[in-house]
Design goal:
Arc Repressor Mutant, subunit A, seven-stranded mixed sheet, binds flavin-adenine dinucleotide, six-stranded antiparallel sheet, single chain, Elongation Factor Tu (Ef-tu), domain 3, DNA polymerase, domain 1, about 625 residues
Amino acid sequence: MFIKYDVIVVGAGHAGCEAAASAANMGSKVLLITMNMQTIAQMSCNPAMGGIAKGQIVKEIDALGGYSGIVTNRSMIQFRMLNKSKGPAMWSPRAQSDRMLFAQTWREILESTPNLDFYQDTVNELVVSSSGKIEGVKTGLGHTVYAKSVVLTNGTFLNGVIHIGEKNFGGGRVAEKAATGITEQLVSLGFESDRLKTGTPPRIDGRSLDYSKMEEQKGDEDIVGFSYLEKPKLKAENQRSCWITYTNNEVHDLLRSGFESSPMFQGRIQGTGPRYCPSIEDKINRFAERDRHQLFVEPEGWNTVEIYVNGFSTSLSEDIQYQALRLVPGFEKCKMFRPGYAIEYDYFPPTQLQFSLETKLIKGLFFAGQINGTTGYEEAACQGLMAGINAHLSAYQKDPLILKRSEAYIGVLIDDLINKGTDEPYRMFTSRAEFRTLLRQDNADLRLTEISHSLGLASDERLNLLQKKIAAVEEVNNYLSKVNVEPEEINDFLKSVYSSPLLNKQKASQVLLRPGVGLKQMSQQIKSLESLKEYEDEILEQAEIQTKYDTYIEKEKQLVEKMSQLENLVIPDSFNFDNLVSLSTEAKQKFKRIKPRTLGQASRISGVNPSDIQILMLFMGR
Ligand SMILES: Cc1cc2nc3c(=O)[nH]c(=O)nc-3n(C[C@H](O)[C@H](O)[C@H](O)COP(=O)(O)OP(=O)(O)OC[C@H]3O[C@@H](n4cnc5c(N)ncnc54)[C@H](O)[C@@H]3O)c2cc1C
């Protein structure tokens, strides 16, 4: 019934979809096995993509030839560029999607991908050779399917247990069964696994809400989107609004009355939850002094009245959830579609992986997504993309693609996971990246598209677009550095942006360095810059960023150069850390466990001190 595949991907969540698409687009024969074909690309929690640092990741996925950006562009109901008042390193695109359209769009894309087959079944065992190489998978329906590489993207399904108040039952998401067998087999093969927890809020009937008591949050006028290949078709005036309301002391008191039956406070939940996405009971417990918490009231799509209550994730009993919600302004008459819940699941501490996301213990076996201890669609999707690429490369015995920390947030994420591991759900933040000025959302294509094209993933169309963009930005930059602007043509404009007037003519590139001075406005208001009006906003924005932030960008590039010297010092596989008596015990233990490939990697392992690196450097020098 089945051919021998190059790559099998297990699970069709955000990681699985990207993994299957990338491996197939690179030329592998791929089988995507998932428990339920109706839940391909299901958004388990809120139907939103992007946000701070996560938006940068989606644009990186897009630049590399993945689909999360395109799917979001085609399914968004609202778009906002967050942090626009800060510098461009902090700008982060975020979209509210139509949940059903998101999943449908992904499915259409996958079904039109050549080389990609589908099968609905549950994988409950891996086929591993006696020499420790993956050979395939076994399914619940009793099939054995063979492949050169296997990517596991089981999400929250491995031995998942759902908690609502005192009730608990097995499940990978509510109304979906948990996956058993895989953890037990991997542990018997020497893997370590542990438990994590996440949660989701109740969903509400939007017809029962009183929006006049909430603050409206509209989308942006300028819908930039997430893809360098295609622009969103959504028109600014058609966007759906989100709404903001707040909890209050009455809500908190009511929630507290449910703590006795709380699975979290009564110790029935053992797994650690996401620190930066705590449940409402966790928030009122940890921040007892706060008399209110913000709630975002978010529509789930174009053609549904279902509402997602962002900020009210909970595993208290349904009754308590319902009563507490009815005390929130605007929710007095709310009707609940479904209660919130918490889920505990197995994950595999990611220090057991190589940078390619291949496991250290089983050759050809890759892990991506929540199974590695991360949380979030974007974090999952980018790992899926990288695992798909590397599963293909491994199947064809080629070197893996490993992105550096200075090249992409994806590089930061994978490097963090492998060097530091994680014992709580890992999500991306801009603060995790040391080269934020380089890793902007606007330049992900400049950073990554050529790398991906050279591997055969990013299409020629993408590369052509990139080359045109580079040429156009260069033209604008050259023009700005040559043309002079006269005081009489610019001083009114400078006055309008509270900038001091020019006394003599000045190069346009010099004027652009002033705070508050933007290139698009200059091209619209200054005669000698009129010719720039023919360039798209994206080109003008890129030229402006490159001019304004040139000094910072150059400084960061020099820092990258310095750091890369440590990255070039390779630690041989056979290196015996026991020979270094003066190493700290913690460093020695971690080096032996993580086996850093370079001095750079060794220096980023948590608990390793500069003195440990010096000792290592001295010894290697000898
Ligand atoms: C209740 C809940 C709340 C969440 N809340 C948040 C949040 O607030 N913020 C946030 O950022 N993230 C949240 N998440 C996490 C987010 O949903 C995940 O990070 C993301 O979906 C992970 O993607 P993934 O591809 O790794 O796995 P998933 O999206 O979970 O997909 C896993 C896929 O694998 C399939 N599968 C699993 N096991 C097998 C098997 N053995 N055989 C065949 N198919 C299999 C499943 O059917 C599914 O299609 C939440 C998740 C849940 C469940």
